Amino acid sequence: MTLLARLASDVQLMFRRPPRQQYGAICYRVKKKSAEVEVLLMTSRDTGRWVIPKGWPMNGKCAREVAAQEALEEAGVRGAAEAETLGSYTYQKVLRDGVQVVCKVQVYPLEVTDLAKNFKEKGERTIEWVSCDEAASRVREPELRNLFLAFKQKMTDRLSAKATKQIPAE
Prior knowledge:
Layout: H1 3-15, E1 20-30, E2 37-43, E3 50-51, E4 54-55, H2 63-75, E5 77-78, E6 87-94, E7 100-111, E8 114-115, E9 127-130, H3 132-138, H4 142-166
Parallel strand pairs: 1-7
Antiparallel strand pairs: 1-2, 1-4, 2-3, 2-9, 5-8, 6-7
C-alpha cells in the first residue's frame, strides 16, 4: 500500500462516525384460538418500506421504555417491552438535512395488550399484522429479517413450553 493510499484510508477512518443508537420493538400478539403469533409491520413515512417502530433515546426513559413509547406513537399499540433484547440491526437513515447516517437499532419484544384509537402518527403509515415469516420476507434489512426468524423460534419454544405445563398429569 502506498503512503498516499494509507493516508487516505486513515483520513476516511477518522471521519467515520460510530452508528447512531435507536431503540425499537417487535410488537406481537398471540391469537387465542389458534395460538398463532402475529407481528406488526408498518411502512416508513419517507420511503414506504416495511419497518418496525423505533426511535431515538429519550431523557428519563430506559431503552425498552423508548421502544414501547415509539410503538404507541408510530403504530398505536400499547404493551410493555420485555427486559431482554432480541438483538440489534443496522440500517442507513437519511436525516432531514440529507445527511446519511448508520443507525444501530436495539430491538425488544413487546406483547401488545391494547390498540389505541388515536395516536400521534395515525394516517401517516400503513400498519399490518403478519406472520414472522411474512415479516421477514418484507423487510429490507438482513439483520432485521434474522431477528424476525429468531423471534419466531423463541415464541415457538415459549408457547410449546407453556402448552406442556397446561397438560394435566395422569
